[in-house]
Amino acid sequence: MRKRLGSWDVLVIVVLAIVVVVSSVAVEGFATSRFWGFLLLDVIPIALIALPMTLVVITGEIDLSVASVLGLSSAVMGQLWMSGVPLPLILPIILLLGMVLGAVNGLFVTGFGLPSLAVTIGTLALYRGLAYVVLGDKAVADFPFSWTGNMIEALPGTTVPWVALVVAVLAVIFGIVLHATPIGRALFAMGNNDQAATFSGISVAKTKFWLFVLTATIASLAGFFWTMRYASARADNGAGLELSVVAAVLLGGVSIFGGRGTLVGVMAGVLLLITLRNALQLADVPADTLTIVTGTLLIISVVGPNAAAMLRARLRRRRPAVSPAAGG
Amino acid sequence: MSTATKAAPPPTRARGDVRGARRLFVVRELGIALALVLLIAVTTVYNPRFLNAQSRKDLMLGATILVVLAVGQAIVVITRNVDLSVGSVLGLSAFATGKLFLAMPDTPIVLALLAGIGLGVLCGVVNGALIAIARVPALVVTLGTLYVFRGIDYSWAAGQQINAADMPSGFKRMGTQTLLGVPVLALFAVAVLLIAGFYMRSYRSGRQLYAIGSDPAAARLSGIPVGWRVFTAMTVSGGLAGLAGVLYAARFGTLDAAAGNGIELQVVAAVVVGGVAIFGGSGSVYGAALGALLLSMIGSALPVLRIDPFWQQAVVGALILAAIGLDRALTARIAARLRGRRARGA
């Protein structure tokens, strides 16, 4: 099982490499550092939210409210800015808001024992609705350039935005926590079997509660970035982004049933999704084809491993003479 | 099995359990119906014109498409699956209907209906086959086909918009006509609801869908063709989404590739509010239809109540949370009562 998982990560990375190589040769303008700078700006919000989402899905839960948290954070930012609150003060307020929104999700899921899919579909509507209540269909755009420009600033001498580096550092931290600490092992244990995890001394409810808090807080941070990057606070910012994040996480090989997945795979999945999308866009492929490609990739990513496993099982059954004792 | 019958509790108690479980269903649907009545009453008191003939018709028309989709979704959710692609199937089918009339203006309405349903069934077959044969979760498959079907829709439409003027008048009339004060389109929804309700309640294969949702492994062990039933449920959901697409075309006349974009979350919300447990095995299509009615009614009631329409989505979200919370509390109470009865009996 573990071996198959490892090969899935490798496969995603190989496909990513092929996409990069082919696009560099075939698509004019792809192999420029300027294009990669733009591409990384697109990657940042999805990669950022995908980090905690990976942990959530590995524990067997899901959070569909992330894009609405992003939107509500953006709307609150706009409202606060209009009423004269300085940006250095807005950022912590937004993060606090994210913690509260995540705590609501966590409370419903772990406190009342409700399925996270239903809860976060509810808060998806609730938070997005509140975003409209806060800001209506207005857009607040008069943020100072010292902030909006700085947010997309590249590292000196490169076109890599400095925020991408922050996300990369966070990714490394998340990766270490997930794959090399007792906390990470506990998350996998929960995803495989909640009850067994409980009996082995893991406080499942508490851990999941804090995961939801963490996810929403990071979604709020992504909301801050989003607002600054486009210099526009709107209630509909990031609408529908939850599907992209979930798609990237599943594409990266995380099982929707929990218990399986790697952070390396997820980051490769995010990069693959965005790179493919931007490369095709650059090659003047119409947007609707991109939608088909995204969907097909997602389906392949779940059907592929299953079909391979079934095929392997059938082949094994066909030559029983090799291991006669293995039957049953 | 024979030992089980010997050890079975006295029939009176068993019947009590069944009655308790049935009461749970009734309580759920009654609660939604009550909320619906309350909403209508308050709104009508506030503004009596809320229930005049014209707005009654608008309300029914508004709910029609959501009800048709919610019935299909309920059947799928009861088997512990979900169909996120319904909005895209609706869009595809609605656009196909427009294209059909554009190509052949004399197409009989029945044929257009069948074509839309057929297209939906085709989409449902794709979903069902991927889920049942490749044994992959419906959530992921239909998240994928949500993109794929919508993408096909967009590339087919290529920015084209079909206008009401392109539709034959007979078809448009179906979208506005009433029969004894009830819009014809709403009759479709009622027919779908009654057929599905009867099937889910009275047919063995319908009951088996509940068994699958309660415990897929147990259902498989007891000889229920789980894969086949799930495949059928997905196909039915697709077909109903196709039907909803034709109804959409009849109602709005103006069509582009974005029809029904994002409606999947509303449909799932309607089903959840209607008391269908998201992890399968319980609820009914009637509850789902009531949920759909309630959601679309909120949309019409808020402006009448002079509440900022920006509140609508927030109210819907709060309603979903309240519904699943209430559902949980009711289930827990019934379970406790059943446990208590059993303990006293033993």
Automatic annotation (TrEMBL), chain B:
Gene Ontology CC entries for this record: plasma membrane
Gene Ontology MF, one: transmembrane transporter activity
Compartments (UniProt record): Cell membrane
Record's bilayer topology term: Multi-pass membrane protein
Keywords: Cell inner membrane, Cell membrane, Membrane, Transmembrane, Transmembrane helix, Transport
Listed name of the protein: Autoinducer 2 import system permease protein LsrC
Function comment: Part of the ABC transporter complex LsrABCD involved in autoinducer 2 (AI-2) import. Probably responsible for the translocation of the substrate across the membrane.
InterPro entries, per database record: ABC_transp_permease (IPR001851)
Organism of provenance: Phytohabitans houttuyneae
TM region positions: 30-47, 59-78, 84-102, 109-134, 179-200, 230-250, 262-279, 286-304, 310-330
Quaternary organization: The complex is composed of two ATP-binding proteins (LsrA), two transmembrane proteins (LsrC and LsrD) and a solute-binding protein (LsrB).
